[in-house]
Structures are given as structure tokens and as C-alpha cells.
């Protein structure tokens, strides 16, 4: 059996079956031009976010270092938002010619384009409407929301 598994024919058959298996594909890459004109970016910093064990002061310090390094490099950008808990980074607006300079700064792990995705319109069948009044009883949440007197003897 061991000799059969080491056979080049078995290896070729396994490779062929792997190639014919359905492939999982990730999201297609977004061209820079399509990413809000190439001006809006998420900048991921190299330190871990707070949720991964980093401290809030360390995350703030890393952002301050990024801001100082960008100012020293003469990079003109506008900070849109700052993220600490699940993502350690900031969202910036920067001209496309400055993007390579931002990526070259110490402490920058990666840059991702900001993409706007339209939310789909909710589908409703003809004549139907959400019945939120009945939902509280159907889910049993009414039990949790109904105030009750403590049992006698308390």
C-alpha cells in the first residue's frame, strides 16, 4: 500500500482530480480607478487591533506615529475615520500620486480601496408587510419584556 501511494501515477491522478474540483474564488480585485476615483483608502497599520490583544494606548500611539511620519514625508491627506477595535488603521483621502508614499511609510501594513456598495432593496411579496407587533410574541421576547412581581416570600 505504501508503495502505491508513492507512485508517480497516483500523484498525477491526485493532481488531476484537484484541478477538476470546483474552485473557490475570492472577491475580484477592484481597479484603483474604480475605488472612489483612487482617492479613498483604508490604511492598515502593522500593530494588532484592540480585539486581538493590543492596548488602546499602543493603538493610539501607532496612529500618532503614522501622522508624524506622513507630515515629515510631506504627504497631504485628509483623515476620514480612525479604527481601533477590530481593525487597526485609518481611512484617508489622498491624491493618487501620494498613495505610493503612504504605502512606503514605516508602520503601514497594507492599503485597501474604499468601495461603496449599494444595499439591495428589500423584497416584499404583494400585499405583505412586516408584522413587528406579532413578532415580539412569536419570538418569546414578550416574556422577557413583561415586568413581573417577585414571588411571595421574597
How does this structure look, described?
This protein is of the alpha+beta class and 154 residues long. It has a domain at 32-113: Alpha-Beta Plaits. Helices cover 33% and strands 16% of the residues. It contains 6 helices and 4 strands. A 4-stranded antiparallel sheet has the order 2-3-1-4. Strand 2 and strand 3 form a beta hairpin. The relative contact order is 0.15. Residues 1-5 and 16-27 have low confidence and may be disordered.
Distance between the termini: 73 Å
- The shape is elongated
H/E series: HHEHEEHEHH
Largest sheet, in brief, is:
4 strands, antiparallel
Radius of gyration: 27 Å
- Structural category: alpha+beta
Query: Low-confidence runs (pLDDT<50, min 5 residues)?
Result: 1-5, 16-27
What percentage of the residues does DSSP assign to strands (E)? 15-25%
Portion in helices: 25-40%
Which CATH class of the domain at 32-113 is shown?
Alpha Beta
Write down the overall mean pLDDT: 78
CATH superfamily of the domain at 32-113: Peptidase S8 propeptide/proteinase inhibitor I9
CATH architecture term of the domain at 32-113: 2-Layer Sandwich
User: How many β strands by DSSP?
Assistant: 4
* CATH topology call of the domain at 32-113: Alpha-Beta Plaits
| Widest sheet: strand ordering | 2-3-1-4
Number of continuous helical runs: 6
Summarize this structure briefly.
The chain has helices at residues 2-5, 8-20, 56-72, 99-103, 132-138, 141-145; strands at 40-45, 77-83, 89-94, 108-113. The protein has 154 residues and is of the alpha+beta class.
Amino acid at each position: 500500500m505504501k508503495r502505491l501511494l508513492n507512485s508517480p501515477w497516483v500523484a498525477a491522478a491526485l493532481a488531476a482530480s484537484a484541478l477538476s474540483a470546483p474552485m473557490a474564488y475570492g472577491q475580484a480585485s477592484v481597479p484603483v480607478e474604480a475605488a472612489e476615483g483612487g482617492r479613498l483608502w483604508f490604511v492598515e497599520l502593522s500593530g494588532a487591533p484592540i480585539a486581538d490583544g493590543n492596548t488602546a494606548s499602543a493603538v493610539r500611539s501607532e496612529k500618532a506615529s503614522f501622522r508624524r511620519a506622513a507630515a515629515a514625508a510631506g504627504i497631504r491627506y485628509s483623515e476620514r475615520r480612525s479604527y481601533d477595535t477590530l481593525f487597526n488603521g485609518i481611512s484617508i483621502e489622498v491624491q493618487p500620486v501620494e498613495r505610493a508614499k503612504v504605502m512606503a511609510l514605516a508602520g503601514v501594513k497594507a492599503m485597501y480601496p474604499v468601495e461603496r456598495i449599494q444595499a439591495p432593496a428589500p423584497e416584499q411579496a404583494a400585499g405583505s408587510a412586516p408584522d413587528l407587533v406579532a413578532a415580539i410574541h412569536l419570538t418569546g421576547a414578550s416574556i422577557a419584556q413583561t415586568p413581573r412581581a417577585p414571588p411571595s416570600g421574597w
